[in-house]
Structure formats: C-alpha cells, structure tokens
Design goal:
With 146 residues, this protein is an alpha+beta fold. The protein has 4 helices and 6 strands; from the N terminus they run βααββββαβα. A hairpin with a 2-residue loop joins β3 and β4. The two termini are 25 Å apart.
Length: 146
C-alpha cells in the first residue's frame, strides 16, 4: 500500500525559506531510515505558491491564475511517498517524522492512501488494466534514466 504524507505550508514556506542545515540533515536521515527499511518511494519539498499557478477549467477554457494563492491554510509545502503493508505501519512512519521539521501549531501532517490499480478491479477492463501496467512500467524506466 502506498501512502502520501502531505506537509502543510505556511508563512515560513511561503517566504521561500528552505530550512536550516539541521532541518535538512534531519529530513535526510529520516528518508535514509525509510530507504533502509524498504518503504521510501519519494519525497520532495515544493517552492512557494508565488512560483506556482492554479489552472482551472471554466466555460470550456483553461484559465491560469498565477500564485501566490490566497488560501494559505490549504498550501502544500512538500510530500513523501511510502510503500508499507498497512495503515498502521504508515502511521508509525509518520510519527517518526523529524521533530525539527514538524508542522507548526494548528497544522498537521496529512496521511492519504494512494489508489492502486487493484482498487479499480470492477472499473478497469483488461485492456485498460494492461495500459495502466504499461504506463507505470514506462514511467519507472523513464525515472530510472534520470
């Protein structure tokens, strides 16, 4: 089961502050621990919303709204993807999150399970299932090439 750990953003991440050397070292140690345990898939920090855009579909047209975004409480500052055997194991990894990188007061790390192809057994025809498998394999090869 793959899970997404969503890191909330706030004034500090929106100010384009990357973090202290200690925070970066703590996060790297955490990721290395997950890698050794065989659960780490990926993890990245995100630039502030001022460097982003919202893209919506309105009246049959794509509309691009440049950042920063007004609703700061909905900002994502980063993420990690882990592959574990259960929700309980995922929660145990979240509880090991480096304290120096913990969200501020009133914020929380969010844990969400990622859909897997088998979750769509009834909706995916054999042809769509094969296309999904081929797509994932191609993406993995592309990622391995750099």
């Amino acid at each position: 089961m793959r899970y997404l750990i969503i890191v909330p953003g706030g004034p500090e991440t929106e100010s384009d502050t990357i973090g202290t050397e200690q925070q970066l070292a703590d996060m790297q140690s955490y990721q290395e621990e997950m890698l050794r345990a065989g659960v780490y898939v990926d993890g990245q920090g995100l630039h502030p919303t001022a460097k982003g855009a919202l893209v919506s579909f309105e009246d049959d047209e794509w509309v691009v709204t440049d950042g920063p975004f007004a609703e700061a409480k909905e900002i994502i500052a980063g993420f990690s993807v882990i592959d574990v055997s259960s929700r309980e194991e995922a929660l145990e990894w979240v509880k090991r999150w480096p304290r120096s990188c913990a969200p501020g007061p009133g914020q929380a790390l969010e844990l969400r399970q990622i859909y897997a192809p088998e979750d769509f057994d009834e909706q995916l025809s054999p042809e769509l299932r094969e296309r999904e498998r081929a797509l994932r394999e191609a993406a993995a090869r592309q990622a391995a090439q750099g």
